[in-house]
Amino acid sequence: MTVLDELCDGSHYAERHRYRMTLADGTVVHREIYYFATLAPDGRFQRVHETGFDLD
User: E strands of the chain, at which residues?
Assistant: First the structure.
């Protein structure tokens, strides 16, 4: 996994990463993921939204 961008502003967090993996049947999966979260007062993720798409 490669983190491309990461931003934290107060209780808002955003991150973008890519990963490539090979499944047991030899299929290669290459995806880019966008990750958005709201942090709770104790610093843990309170709410998370994630979306992504296939590359290649």
Answer: 2-9, 12-22, 28-39, 45-54
